[in-house]
Design goal:
By secondary structure, the protein is an all-alpha fold. It has 19 helices and two strands. The radius of gyration is 21 Å and the shape is globular.
């Protein structure tokens, strides 16, 4: 029966979405059911079907290769810097198997952004997104704009996904807009996904297939939750059709490479700044909490992790996390939502918040694999607001709903995957 504990999580998550619904009578249960089936099929394919499992395992190895290629560039720039090797002895950075977070992460993000820019210039990215979106459009009967935006979010960043549906943003219904925002927060960009997979590889964790599965499952998952919370009551301009016409902004291949490198550097610097700032802020808050509660009881060690562990414990339990990993999972869920997913993954892969069981690792990896956190909501509203200024008021009103939907979508994917292990 432990295997099917995740069914409680599915009911719990869908129940929360139902309670938050602004029009319960208009919920499209066919869409909900078909989306759940699609999520289940994705999970079964990656976890249980041997050839597909083998394919994604090799894709994970390919992600590790990308980090090695990225390090060839970073090694030239930082080659004179010494770092500690696996034996604890100093050695040059460009030597194999050395890892310095800032250098490796920066190099990997830059290389992936260059590859995405090249694929975009060649039209490969648009064709791939359009093909998958057509399939989702047929299966779930969602509008073309919703399908395109959610599928694009599984490959590129939050704002970049919205660029692909820019012509439709002005005329999107509020339900479509929420679904689009929820997908951007539930999924995770390819470059960041590769960084997390390689962080896991450094710690001996095979996270790549889990994270790929999480990002693919998040697209239909976000649509399920968003369409329960805000059912469609208006007429969509793109219902029943998927049409993607996004021309490349690059002049030629060299222009694509240089823009990709520049964009990657900006993203990497933003990641590093967030990591430094949030870890420092957490240390400050923990110090304040400890000193305050020690005034009443010297043994009362209240920290942010302790608080997160209590608040998110019911979600971890409902998703089917084994008892020995419940507190750690709850802590990581709290860190991901209130701080950001980078902190959660860093603490997971460094074992600062240890996960012991294989099932616990699967569930928590999927549950924290997404951009749904408070800072990302601000970035998303700002990004879409720039593309469609006339929708700023709608975006602001839907921001918190999108955060809840994106979070619940990740939890829904984790619950379904946990049933299969």
């Amino acid at each position: 029966m432990q295997r099917f504990h995740g069914i409680i999580g599915i009911i719990f998550i869908l129940g929360i979405a139902y309670l938050l619904s602004n029009n319960k009578k208009k919920i499209n249960y066919r869409l909900v059911f078909s989306g759940l089936v699609l999520q289940l099929l994705i999970a079964i394919a990656i976890l249980k079907v041997q050839p597909i499992q083998f394919f994604f395992q090799n894709m994970g190895k390919g992600m590790q290769k990308i980090e090695q290629f990225a390090k060839a560039g970073a090694g030239f720039v930082y080659g004179g810097i010494a770092t500690l090797g696996t034996d604890g002895q100093p050695q040059r950075y460009e030597i194999a198997h050395t890892f310095v977070f800032a250098f490796n992460v920066t190099a990997t993000i830059i290389l992936v952004c260059i590859l995405v820019a090249i694929f975009y210039y060649l039209g490969i990215m648009q064709r791939l997104v359009s093909l998958i979106a057509r399939g989702m459009n047929v299966l779930m009967k969602v509008s073309g704009a919703e399908a395109l935006s959610n599928v694009a979010s599984a490959f590129v960043g939050q704002v970049e996904a919205q660029v692909m549906v820019r012509p439709y943003l002005k005329g999107m219904t509020k339900s479509e807009l929420l679904a689009s925002m929820s997908g951007s927060l539930a999924c995770i960009a390819g470059g960041i996904l590769i960084v997390y997979a390689n962080m896991g590889a450094q710690a001996g964790m095979d996270l790549a297939p889990k994270l790929i599965m999480a990002s693919l499952m998040a697209a239909p998952g976000a649509l399920i939750i968003a369409k329960i919370v805000f059912p469609e009551t208006e007429e969509s301009q793109t219902m029943g059709k998927v049409k993607l016409e996004v021309k490349s902004e690059y002049t030629n291949l060299i222009d694509a490479i240089t823009h990709g490198a520049g964009d990657g550097f900006k993203i990497a610097m933003n990641v590093i700044a967030m990591i430094i700032g949030f870890i420092a802020l957490i240390a400050l808050i923990d110090w304040c909490l400890l000193n305050f509660f020690h005034l009443f009881n010297p043994d009362l060690n209240i920290t942010l992790d302790w608080i997160f562990g209590k608040i998110f414990y019911p979600f971890a339990w409902a998703m089917g996390v084994p008892s020995e990993d419940l507190n750690s999972t709850a802590t990581l869920l709290g860190q991901k939502l209130t701080i950001n997913e980078f902190i959660a993954f860093k603490n997971l892969t460094s074992q600062q918040v240890p996960i012991i069981t294989e099932k616990g690792l699967l569930i928590v990896s999927i549950a924290i694999c997404g951009f749904a956190n408070f800072s990302s909501v601000g970035m998303l509203i700002g990004g879409i607001g720039t593309l469609a200024p006339e929708r700023r008021a709608d975006l602001a009103r839907l921001g918190m709903k999108a955060l809840i939907c994106g979070t619940l979508a990740s939890y829904l994917s984790a619950s379904i995957a946990g049933i299969l292990l």
